[in-house]
Amino acid sequence: MNEHTFGELLSQFLDDAIGDEDLDRLGKMLAGDESLRQRYREEVQMAEALAMVAGEDRSAELFAERLDQRLEAESQKFDFLNRVLNRSGKLAERSVIRRWAPIVAGALAASIVIAFGAGLSTGLWQGRHSAPSIASAAGGQLPEPPQPAVIPQEPVDDSVAILKQVVDVTWTGTNQYEVGDSVSPREIIELESGLVQMQFFRGATLTLEGPARLEINDPDQVMLHSGQAWAQVPVPARGFTVLTSETKIVDLGTEFGVSATPGQRTEVRVFDGLVELYEPASKPDGDMLHSLETGQAISVDVQGRSTPLSDQVTAMPSELLLREKRSQQIREGYRRWQRWSEEFRNDPRLLLYYNFESPDATTSTLRNQASDTRKLDGAVVGGAWTQGRWPQKGALDFKRPSDRVRFHVAGDFESLTLAAWVRVDGLDRMLSSLLLTDQWDNGEVHWQFDQLGQLGLSVGGAPDVKWRYTKPLVDLTQLGQWIHVASVFDGGRQTVRHYFNGQRVGDEESLQFDGRLRIGNAELGNWGRPQWQGSQAIRNFNGRMDEFILIDGALQDAEILEIYETGNPNR
Asked: Ranges for the LamG-like jellyroll fold domain (predicted)?
């Protein structure tokens, strides 16, 4: 069994774009392989659940018509795949089902009904696709009983804080963070310079100044190995604790600063309120060593000896200072990107360059910055102009099934590079479009996220080019953050490469495809067919896009990294 072929057939089936011959092939594969049947169940369950929300329409008459054709062609044969497509969630008329049930029983040697989901387990036909009936090639297996409804496992998150501000930071550790990133216990934050401000979910705010090394212990405790930190602790977060090698500082609702010099001393200053100091390894009910109030400061050495500090206690860094530094960083980053954009638009390899810098927030035309002609401009349908990576920059917000940008790219290509800055606000579709061609003809490119946050690239009509998915790149903790994604279809080297925030994700995957790539009529952020064919799958992107690049050719690692670094809003 060719895994690539099965994936392609299953994708076509879920897209409602499969022909009779391929339908037979899919049925035979499912009949002979339990692992494939399990994979099929999972894919259809997801499609069925999403379709209940989408409200797509597919009548019972289409089911009857399709069944007529298949019965006529496959009478007395095996491996019949029964497509039931009721996209609106309406019940197929029981009379239609009763009409065909005896014919199916007589025409097929044995039908194994794979039923799953609450709807089918109660005898109802629901969702976009129902489970297929697969005739056993061996002929003699009993029908499988309906499976009980599967209750999805609730997602979990172990993070305890989120980065609120990152200003002029030079990282020294293996972990590098951006605004909006969450941190979990056992993570270590190391910086050579700059300021990082974290908000803990219990309410405490901690500002770290480099050079510093901080370890997250739990929702209420951190270990400051070195550097300076300032904490603001409101009443709901009382008990927030900062450990150093010399002491344990327990807050009782206050503002205080800590400076840790490894092997020498820890200095504690209270700007407002009250803190208590304990031995570093003391238990919660251990003896308190010191209590410090507003305006007091103390130094504790490596032997645990304490000395009051006579220097004047100053206030902790203000929010205003951080905001001013961050505003300056934003202005400089935007100007850096503008300079790069002006040069990049002259690259002769560019087919499309949409920078979403619209002078008119109500415009319905997205200008192609790579061309003097307007034939490659995009038509904005729906969507809302909004703020991009920087407050000064524009973006399009995609939310509804109607939101999209339509365009046309003529010609065919050996290699293509697709790159975009996007902000994912939700993965509430089975597939979320970045770029989809109207159809799925030979050589046409589809680029999208799946519901697991994996980035996928595939080419229509190429049976040996399966969906090339990355590992999950976006999860619930990363929603609302600006990310850069890129995919390269390298026809010369016969490989597909994916990139996330400038770095290659996973290994190159070898192709078995020597055809030409095509775009033709296509859309950003959605999937549409201008020739009406009834209802179709909802694949609109939920989020924002403020830059899209399509290049005739295969960019290399360094070129992808340059696009990311010059456009990184947190740099």
From this structure: 414-558
Helix axes 94-107, 60-74, angle to 10 degrees: 10
- Together in a domain, 366 and 515: yes
- Residue ranges making up the domain that contains 235: 161-317
Residues 301 and 359 placed together within one structural domain of the fold? no
Tell the burial category of 348 from Cβ atoms under 10 Å away from its Cβ (0-12, 13-18, 19+).
exposed
Residue 297 lies in a domain: yes
Does 281 have pLDDT greater than 70?
yes
More confident residue, 520 or 85: 520
CATH code at 295? 2.60.120.1440
> What's the 3-state SS for 283-315?
CCCCCCCEEEECCCEEEEECCCCEEECCCCCCC
Residue 352 lies inside a defined structural domain of this protein: yes
Cα–Cα distance measured from residue 376 to residue 395, given in angstroms and rounded to the nearest whole number: 19
pTM for the predicted model, two decimal places: 0.69
Distance CA 505, CA 557 (A): 11
Within this chain, do residues 474 and 397 fall inside the same structural domain, yes or no? yes
Helix axes 319-344, 557-567, angle to 10 degrees: 140
Are residues 301 and 247 part of one domain?
Answer: yes
pLDDT class of 15 with cuts at 50, 70, 90: low
Distance linking the first and last C-alpha atoms of the chain: 48
> Any bridge partners for residue 243, and if so which?
223, 248
Query: What tens digit of pLDDT does each residue of 323-367 get?
Result: 888 888 899 999 999 999 999 999 999 999 999 987 676 789 999
Confidence tier at 59 by pLDDT (50, 70, 90):
very low
Q: Domain total for the chain?
A: 2
